[in-house]
Amino acid sequence: MPESKGRDKPTYTPPRIANRPTQQPNPRWYAPVMVTLMVLGLLWVATYYISGVHQYPVPQIGRWNLGAGFALMMAGFLMTTRWR
């Protein structure tokens, strides 16, 4: 029995996305601020631990110095997720 010819299917072309936002590079200040926040947080926590009686960097807040240092480091780390 003879075989019939198959039909040619048109090639698939994906739909165009007209309003697709293009990702812009970060401003020049972004990377230095990111690194500075992480280093500043590290120095804050290290200063707190090195001072034996925990009187530095801010004696009035006591153990919250650790929270302040880790908050600075976390802010720098969160900036790394948006870095392009």
Automatic annotation (TrEMBL):
The keyword Membrane applies. GO terms for cellular component: plasma membrane. Residues 1-10 have a biased composition (Basic and acidic residues). The chain crosses the membrane at residues 29-50, 62-80. It holds the Pfam family CrgA. It comes from the Bacteria. Residues 1-26 are annotated as: Disordered. It is a multi-pass membrane protein. GO terms for biological process: cell division. Keywords: Cell cycle, Cell division, Cell membrane, Membrane, Transmembrane, Transmembrane helix. Its main location: membrane. Belongs to the CrgA family. Involved in cell division. This is Cell division protein CrgA.
